[in-house]
Structure formats: structure tokens, C-alpha cells
């Protein structure tokens, strides 16, 4: 059991986020695939994904030690929904952050020398991790990201409404269930390790997660003592909810889509289901950023993609109408 102790100032500084980020969700998929029974909600996803990951994904397994704490990928890679932005942040992580994140990780004996390269910031070692992240994301997250992201957005909206209508107490009661218990002024997390965490006025960010089951996780900032902690809360506990999220992972009739949109626009639409920047799309499709911008403008005018700025990047995502066009058997109604 973990117990989070709130002060009045902490309660005033609670906010809700949209996601823990593409990188953290991807690492959680590796953990979930190693879970013998993730429940009915994830059975279709496990059956679809198992066997499709190759040896390139192995470095991510080393980041999931069998005992003790794991790596906080959100802290290292940020909460961007674009995996390429996450890769850039990983490769630029400060050495002090790397040391803080990895000093308490109990790596397997076979991985310890390799892990030393991570702590030392060895670029070749980190390139192995980022390639593994890309490879795993393309199989376990990207094919389903449109539905997953819509689900997380719905959950965040429900939490925000609970906060607006009933205040912090109502929000915390809304979160309560098998994993969380609110006993003012303490929020209890079902967890294999005992711990008491005092927020000391930093507040708390509550973020919905897709693949971090079966328990909520408290992610504490490694370097800045004034930065708010993040509570990652699993949001899929029922088979009916989970099952609907895996319908978009099947094969798309790419020829029909190409006939309708053209080969380049069809490829951009499919790639944007994971939420990608202009630079990322250009790199993946081997075309210029200017060409990407032209085609995304056409898709945006047709209501198939949405574009917004996140930091320095321009991020493109598929709209519900675009997802309906991509998903076999769907109806535009």
C-alpha cells in the first residue's frame, strides 16, 4: 500500500492531464505483454500483438527489472503523444537525470554492464533504446492510438467535469475503486510496496493511462523538489470498454484508400493515427516537410486530420471522421 498525504495547499494544486505520453505508454505495453493474465479487456490486444515484436524491442525489457522500482519513462521522455519528440527528449536527457533515474534500478546481472552505458549517457546505448521504443510503439500502440487517445480524452474530460462541478473531494471520490481509496487527507494506492509520500505543497497531476495496469503508479520528479508528482491511473477495467479500443488495429484496405485520397495522403493519414509531427511524417515517408504540410492541409480541410502546435512541433492527429475512413467496416454516421 502506498499512501499519499495531502496538505490544503496540495489539494488546491491538483490538476488533470491528458496522458503520460507515448513513450511511457509504450514501455507499459512491454510490461503488459509479460503479464500472464492482463484480463479480458486486453485479451484481443495481446493476441494481436504477441509474436510481432522482434529482437529490436529487447532493450525495453531490460528497463523492466523483475524486482524493485522500474524506470519512469515519463520523466525521461516527457508526456508528448509523438514518439519522435519522446526520442529527441530521451537522447537529450541531462546526465544528472539519468543518474537519478537509474541509481536505484536493480538490473538483471546480464544487463548491468549495458545499463552502465545508459547512466553514462553513451549515445550508442541510448540509440538502441530509442530504436526499441520506435519498433515497439509501431506494433503495440500506433495501430490503436486513434481509439486509445479518444478514450483518454473522454476520461480526462470526465475528471475535469468532476473537479469543476464538485471540487477536489468529488474528483478524488470519482477516482476511487479497487485501486484507489480516499481517506481524507490521504489517498491510498493498492501497491506491492509500502510507502508514505508527503507532497509538501507540490500538488499532484492526475493522468489517465491505457496500458499501465494492474495498478496506479505515483511518479515522483527525480530532480526538482518543487515539481508536482504525477499519479498515473489505469482507465480500462472492463472487457467491453477494452474490446472496443482494439477494433482499429486490423488491416486497412490500403488500395481503396489510395484510390480515394492518393498514395501520399493515404500514407500520411495512416501514419498520423499515432499523432506525429510534420518532421516525423517527412522522415517516415521519405518526403519533404513542405510536401507533408501541403497534404496535411488538404486532409485538414476535408476534416480528416487536426493540427495543433505542441511546443516547437506541429502535431497532426486523425479526427474521428478520419478514423472511420481508416477502420474497416466503419460507417461515417
Describe what this molecule looks like in 3D.
The chain is an alpha/beta fold. It has helices at 8-12, 22-33, 43-49, 58-62, 73-77, 83-91, 95-102, 112-119, 123-140, 145-175, 239-245, 254-261, 263-271, 278-285, 289-301, 320-326; strands at 2-5, 14-16, 180-183, 186-189, 195-198, 204-209, 217-219, 229-234, 276-277, 305-310, 313-318. A four-stranded mixed sheet has the order 3-4-1-5. Strands 2-6-8-7 form a four-stranded mixed sheet. A three-stranded antiparallel sheet has the order 9-11-10, sandwiched between helices. Strand 3 and strand 4 (186-189) form a beta hairpin. The radius of gyration is 20 Å and the shape is globular. Mean pLDDT is 85; it is low at 328-333.
List keywords for this structure.
alpha/beta; single chain; four-stranded mixed sheet; about 325 residues
Structure summarized in a few sentences:
The protein is an alpha/beta fold and 333 residues long.
List the helices and strands and how they pair.
Blueprint: E1 2-5, H1 8-12, E2 14-16, H2 22-33, H3 43-49, H4 58-62, H5 73-77, H6 83-91, H7 95-102, H8 112-119, H9 123-140, H10 145-175, E3 180-183, E4 186-189, E5 195-198, E6 204-209, E7 217-219, E8 229-234, H11 239-245, H12 254-261, H13 263-271, E9 276-277, H14 278-285, H15 289-301, E10 305-310, E11 313-318, H16 320-326
